[in-house]
Amino acid sequence: xxxxxxxxxxxxxxxxxxxxxxQLFKEKGYERTEFESSADVYVVNTCTVTNTxxxxxxxxxxxxxxxxxxGVICVTGCYAQTSPAEVMAIPGVDIVVGTQDRTKMLDxxxxxxxxxxxxxxxxxxxxxxxxxELDVPSFTDRTRAxxxxxxxxxxxxxxxxxxxxxxxxxxxxxxxxxxQAQQLVDAGYKEIVLTGIHTGGYGSDMKxxxxxxxxxxxxxxxxxxxxIRISSIEASQITxxxxxxxxxxxKVVRHLHIxxxxxxxxxxxxxxxxxxxxxxxxxxxxxxxxxxxxAVTSDVIVGFPxxxxxxxxxxxxxxxxxxxxxxxxxxxxxxxxxxxxRMEDQVDEEVKNERVHRLISLSDQLxxxxxxxxxxxxxxxxxxxxxxxGSESGLYVGYTDNYLKVVFPATEEMVGKxxxxxxxxxxxxxxxxxxxRVVEDNTDTAIENIRMTS
Length: 454
What we know:
Blueprint: E1 3-8, H1 12-27, E2 31-33, E3 41-46, H2 51-67, E4 72-77, H3 78-82, H4 84-88, E5 95-96, H5 105-115, E6 119-120, E7 144-148, E8 150-151, H6 162-166, E9 170-171, H7 174-186, E10 191-195, H8 211-221, E11 227-230, H9 240-248, E12 255-257, H10 265-271, H11 277-290, E13 295-302, H12 309-321, E14 326-331, H13 349-372, E15 378-386, E16 395-400, E17 405-409, E18 419-425, E19 431-438, H14 443-453
Parallel strand pairs: 1-2, 1-3, 3-4, 4-5, 5-6, 7-10, 10-11, 12-13, 13-14, 17-19
Antiparallel strand pairs: 8-9, 15-16, 15-18, 16-17, 18-19
């Protein structure tokens, strides 16, 4: 049996796609092996979001070549898409495929075995208008399944290379999304995370169909699905219709990740972001009315070119005022090939780091405050794995619908099920909980059990 090993760099979409590529290999009779062992084929799924992403990708490619100089080395993903010549120039790389045509990878491998000539299978992503179907019936991770619903982005923010790596916005056929969701639920997943490059933009390239309609269909048509989470959504995509769905659905969770990037209108203009702070604030207020207890997490870029102390403080104060529940804070890093990398007045590294620290401590404080609102509440948690690997303590860790990380006594049988847990001690990065009971899937079976025991 031929063996294949994978290494994934970068975002959740890449991890999803690696699983999809693995399915293709599995169908062709391959066995999956660890990246650190000797394999017949190595697939490196690369990232290019930062210059460091490129560098790490090159390091991993070289590591694969050293593991088995006779193995077939395939490089795919965003760095392969934007810089195919650079990747081909690494001695030992055999096949390069970008962020489309992944299904051709196995044919290229057969072709390579015969011809022994390196193959560059990277096309012009900007011309692609059709969503590439890549199916993932189940994941290595047992509890939360990702479901990719769209590809590409039309925004061209000045700090971002991604449209050049992923192409323009294209949505997956809703029928395929529903079908795949049902498949995942049938495989035992209770929670599905809708993911993509610009997830909230789903449907903007379609006639008479949008994200709100998709959420409604998932809610109504997928039997046995308990939780729908949106991996990320832009403020401009939170329409009144989306808010209405969030309000009425019992499956869409009370947690949204809304990237703010900056809380200053002047910085947002330089970033070429599509909203003002007044608009963002209005959306947040509407959301919190519709969904009491909603957790809003966000991404922030600190030290964007020209950011003054005043502009930074606008961001700081906005986040504090609107009580975000957690932030991912990134110091701005120059991405070669983007307008922001060529801007004057780049911010000094020390100033950036000092601001990053201030925002991270604000984030920690807000996260603790948000968690404390839920102390003594009984919430539903899906246990994911043992807490602190290999511990004998019998503690497991999982997430509530509003994205609180909870540690509580559980058993291996409970992993992936929905469990009622009382939050006994709120905190951050995790809360302590007390097991209450497992939620039965089906009320009929619960009633059966009662009859049998009474």
